[in-house]
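Sample intake sheet
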Amino acid sequence: MTNPFIGESPLPYQLPPFDQIHDEHFLPAFEAGIGEHQAEVEAIVSNTEPAGFANTVAALEKSGRTLQRVSAVFFNLASSHATGNIQQIQSEISPRLAEHQDSIYLNKELYQRFTLVDPDLENLDAESRRLFEEYLRAFTRSGAQLQDRAKQRLRELNSQLSRLSTQFSQLVMNGANASALLVEKEAELEGLSGDDIASAAEAARTGGHEGKYMLSLVLPTNQPAMASLANRETRRRLFDASVRRGTRDDEFNSLGIAKTMAQLRAERAELLGFENHASYAANDQTAPSLAAIHTMMDRLAPAAVHNAKAEAGILADVAGHDLEPWDWAFYSEQVRRDKYDVDLAALRPYFELERVLQDGVFYAANRLYGLTFEEWKDLPGYHPDVRIWEVKEEDGTALGLFLGDYYTRDTKNGGAWMNPLVEQSALFGTRAVVVNNLNIPKPPAGEPTLMTYDQVTTMFHEFGHALHGLFSDVSYPKFSGTSVPRDFVEYPSQVNEMWILWPEILANYAKHYRTGEALPQESIDKLVAAQQWGEGFATTEYLGAALLDLAWHELAPGTEITDSLAFEAEALERAGVALNLIPPRYRTGYFKHIFAGGYAAGYYSYIWSEVMDADTVEWFKANGGLTRGNGDHFRKELLSTGFSIDPLEAFRNFRGRDAEIAPLLKRRGLE
């Protein structure tokens, strides 16, 4: 069998040949890749020449290419098109990959060889010296200095955690599909737009429920339809379906896995010399310490809760009855309409997907960075919904490929994300190939895809990640694109959201899908004026999730948790964010970010990054806004550097100083 992962792809930019890749290729490619990587590491270890940068550090950076190729494709599929076969392979290969990772970073001889490298002897450039230092750091954080017995226990913990993380991810996706709300009659969907009802009918039809309606669940607690559904019982059922994911006494219960993972992470942190997993995680971020993270959260939480309670009082007056959690979004939209004269649902005809993408997202990138986008329909994607664009510089120089996968499906995880399929590096002469995944309900064939304002925000946000990958200009793949600390990675993507309402951009894309009429300036002014409405809710639900994450990962080793939901409730109460009307953005049972997504003890990252984001927006406004000069400066000093320099140094190079928190407080109404 010819395996398409053995050797570089012949397609432009080394795009994986998806039309030749089949499920049966993955396990053999993983086996071949692991074997190849092990042989390359052994060659480094057994080299009789003195340890130097070229034969040790660069040699390790060059190793494992087959494994990298198959992993990039497979784990994108495991999130975006996780069929039963893919899930089975993931369950089998994930612990193997954890064991292989340990075989490298716990390799005593390899670590010793690295300690013998003298970077000053070879007059290394700054990025090469940083590569050497980061590898040494990775060895230390991975336990290379531990004694053999501790290393063996560490291997066991890493293998267990890998298995459990995969199980949690699959339970969340499969549980969300099983929890989708099936509605019998169209009347029960009163308040939804005709397009939403058509999408719900289509979802029910494809799920085998012809003549009914299905509301699929997105990953966060708050479901988009809650803002429009006039039927209070339907809202209650949808809310219940959302918040009870992973907690019911059924095959999709994930609480036991979450608890076990938190306990195993605590034990691993202790082995590595840390008080708890949160301290271990904070040691690898831009935040100076776990205490600094708490200081910031403690500053924000009381003001956010105060604002949320004030909002709740307004909503109760509007509702005319006791408020329940499933009422919040519905009456919040009423206030937005009545007080600010903004009807977000009425804006959807102005947010048609193709226009938002081409005339909004791509247009902003052209105005700011000079980029152009040409769709290549003859290149294969991993699913029929996937589209591919070649991205070029203003002078026609090739930059990379961008893939867009925008529609929800049963085999796709909830949420939205960016994945690199090929990482830029001078070492291999590769340009970036990146993919954005969103979860927009697919309309019936021939109907337009009308987006909510939140979905527009998500599209701009995820494209900010894509730009971070596409603009990467580094020597080594270890530093490429978004390979930065977790509490920095969201910063460039959040900055890209600023262009949504920028006058020149909005005027170019926000046009009625039927008439072509521009979104009226009056509506825009009202939308801007209403931006702070609901920030109490939004900040409180976010902080609830971030503080719940920290609570799970500040467990001392050996701590026994008998009731995960009771632990969750107590943690929120201690943090001062326990509001019955505002559950956390993610509850334990479906908190995929921290139990299966790399954000363990790092969900605070979004607001930590937002400090830099809000400060950057102020810089753009003060320096002329949407100009090529501003875009080029942001690109040169920040987007292109990846992790080749310290991220906070990159920010200072861009901004001229450290970030200040005042713009964030003003944006969220927390002054």
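Comment: The radius of gyration is 25 Å. The chain has a mean pLDDT of 96.
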